[in-house]
C-alpha cells in the first residue's frame, strides 16, 4: 500500500542522537515488562477530593488546557475506539476498522449505558455497526468516564456499567482566542487525519469549535495482505458555547454533527454508505439552588441518528438489499447535590424518549418481481424515566456509598405493519409494554494507610433492547443466524459483587480488582429449529430467550512502578470467565490478556514502548461462531517531542504499532478478521495561543 | 293579519312535513343510490328487453374465484327487477369440447334487486376459445334466457389463483384461492375445492384438508412460521386457515390436498431437493 503522507519511521526531528540511543537502550532492556497507556489516569476524586472512588476509570482524551490535545495518548490522533481499547476495562468488538463496539465487564451495548455528557443516544443500526462512540471524535472529547456494574446506574438502568463521554469545554477560562491545527498519517491504511479547533473564552462567555476529518483506505494485516472493505471516511464538527448569566449561573449549549461515508465492514456482508448524527443540548447550571442544594444542572437534549447499510460495492452477494435505520432520542436530566450533616446526596431525575425504526428492502434478481420489504425495527417508541439518588457517608478513613435508581420503561410498537409482523410470532403480543426497573448498590471504601480496600454489593435490572425485544430477522454474520426478538422477555437481573485491594507505595502501585455477576434471566439468542431462515445462506433462526441464569467473573491485576522520576513501568493482567446455566461458555468472553509498557517523559520528550497480548481463547462458544483464537503478542513504540515556537507549541509524535508485523486476531474480532499489521504513524499538532 | 296567520300556518305545516320526511326518508334515499356504487360494471348483457349488468370488485372476469353481483333491468320501464328466479351457467367453448366451471347458485342480496354468486373460471378465453354466460330467469311466471360471450382474462399480475389437477384417486379437481388482500401479518386464508363430476357439474368437496407451505423462491425459498393448514368449514363451504407472510414480495404457497381418509391426492413436500410442490398458489404484493 502506498503511503500518502510522508511518515518517516525514524526519530529525525531534532533529537540529540545520544539521548535517543540511551532511551532506546533502556526501553529494550525492559521490553518484557508490562504497561497500560499513559492516558489512563485514575481519578482519585470524583465527588470530593478527599474520597477516592477508584472503581471508576477515567480515560483522558484531551489535556485540559487545550494547548496540546491528546498528548498523553501514545498516538494522539488515534480514533476514539483506539483510546477506549487502550483502557484498562474496556475492550472493543471489531467488525472492521471503524465503529468498534465497546465491551465492559464482558458486556456490550444493550447491557451498558453509553452517554455523551449524560445524554442518552442509541445507534440506528440493527447490526450494531454504529455504537454511540462512533458519533463523536477525540477532537471534541475531554475524557471518558467508565463505571463498572451498578456504579454506572447514575447514567441509566444498566448491568455491565456505563461509559460517559465528556465533551471538552473551555468553561470560562480567561484565555481569549486560541486554536490549534492537527494532522496525522498512518502507513498501513494510508490514513489521513486533519483537524483543527478555534476557541474563544473569557470569564463571561466561551465558544469552542472544532473539526476533524479522517480518511483511510483498506488496511493491511500482518504479513501484508490487504483487508478488503476496511476503508472509511468521516468528519465531525462540533461547537459548544457557554454564557455566564451571573455569578454561579451558567447557560450552555452544545452541538455535534458527525458523518461517516463509505465505511467498509470486512467482517460483515454489508458496508455503510452513510452514518450521520446530529447531537444537540442546552443546559442550565447553578452553583447553589434552594439554599441547601449545590451544583444544580439541568439539561435538555435531542439527537437524531441515520444509518444506511449498503452492499452496492460488494461484487458478489446472494441478493441486493438496502437496510436504513433511524434512531431519534429526546431527553432531559436535572441533578443536584445536597449535603445534610455528613451525608452527601446526589439526586437526579432523568428521562428520554427514543424512536427506533429500521427497514430492509431486498431486490430480487428478476426486475419484474416486487421488492421484498420488512421492518426490522418496527418503530419502537421507548419512554424511560428514572430517579437516581446516592448518598455518600464519609468516615474518618473511608466512606459508604449507597445508591439507587428506580425507573419506568414503556415501549410501544407504533407501526401497524411492524406490529402485525411481530404478531406472526407472538399472536397475543400487546402493542405496549411497561416495565419497572430498579437498582440498589452499596459500596464501601476503607483507607488503611498504604492499602485501600473497596468493596461493594449491588443489584440491578434492565429492559431488553429494541433488537432483543422487537428485532425482526436481524442477521448476525458471526454465528450465521437470523435473530428474532421476543417482546415478552423478562427483565434481565444482575446481582453483583466487587472488590478491589490496592497498595500505593512511594514508587510502586499495585491493585487487584475483581467482580462477579450472577445474572438471572440472562438474555441470549437460542436456536429455534422449527423456524425457517430468511437470510440466504444462514444456518438457522435464533430467538432471544431468558436463560435461567449465567455467571460472569472478571479479575485484573494492575501495576505501576516509577523506575526513575522520568521512566515509568505499567502492567496489567486480566482474566474473564462467563458461563450459562448449562455450563456453556458465553460468547465474547476475554481469555487471559496482558499489557505492559514503559513510558518516558522528560523536558518535552516523550517515549513509550508497549506490548500487549493474550493467551489462546480456550473458553469459546462455537454456537456463536467462535473458535479458538490463538495467542498473540504485539509490540508498539512511540516517541514525541514538544517544540516551542514563540508562544506557540508544536508537538510531533512518531511511532510504530505491531512492530514485528504479526498476523493476529483477538477474541473480539468479528469472524476473526485480522488486525492491522505493522503501522507507522506520525501526528503533528500546532497550538496557537 | 289573517294572511300572515295563514302564511305562518303554512310554514308550520311545511316544516312538519319537512321534518317528517327527514326522519322517515332514509330508506327511500338508499333506493335512489346505486347499491353497487363502488363496484365495477364488468359487462352489460342485453336481450328480451332486459339488460343484465354484472358487477364485481374486480375490474375484469379473471381466472380464479370471481364474486359477481348483477341486476336485471327492464329497459322499457327503466327499473330494476326484484326477486326474479335466476340461474346461471358459464360455458367454455373450446375447439374440441365444451365445459363449465365451479359456480354457486344465484342468491339475492339484502337489496332484492341485486343478485349475487361466484364463478371460478379455470382458464382464460382467447381468440378461438371463449366463455359464454347464460342466465335463465323468470319474471312474473315468464321465463327468459340470455346468453352472451364474456371476456375472461388472466389476472394482471399473472399469479396463480386457481389450479386444476387430477388427484391420485383419478378424479379431477378445481382448487381456487379466495381473494386476499395480503399483508405482512398472519392473514386469514381460504380456498374452495370442487370435484369435476362431469363437464358441466363441479360440486363442492367437503372434509378434505389442504396443507400450505408458503415460500419465497427469490430469497432462498424460505418459509414463514405459524401457518395454519386449511380445514373445511361447512357453513362457508370453504377451507379456512392462516397464512403468515413475513415480508412483501412474491410468495409461492405450496399446497398438498388430502382426502377425508388422509390420503394424499396431490402435492409434494418442499425440501432442499424439491423446491416447490406441483400444486401451488401465488401471491405478490
From TrEMBL, chain A:
InterPro entries: Beta-barrel_TonB_sf (IPR036942), Plug_dom_sf (IPR037066), TonB-dep_rcpt-like (IPR039426). Gene3D superfamilies: TonB-dependent receptor, beta-barrel domain, TonB-dependent receptor, plug domain. It is found in: Cell outer membrane. The chain crosses the membrane at residues 20-38. The keyword Membrane applies. It comes from the Bacteria. It is a multi-pass membrane protein. Keywords: Cell outer membrane, Membrane, Receptor, Transmembrane, Transmembrane beta strand, Transmembrane helix, Transport. SUPFAM superfamilies: Porins (SSF56935). The keyword Transport applies. PANTHER family: OUTER MEMBRANE PROTEIN C, TONB-DEPENDENT OUTER MEMBRANE RECEPTOR. This is TonB-dependent receptor. The lineage of its organism: Bacteria, Pseudomonadati, Bacteroidota, Flavobacteriia, Flavobacteriales.
UniProtKB/TrEMBL annotation, chain B:
Keywords: Signal. Residues 1-20 form the signal peptide. This is YtkA-like.
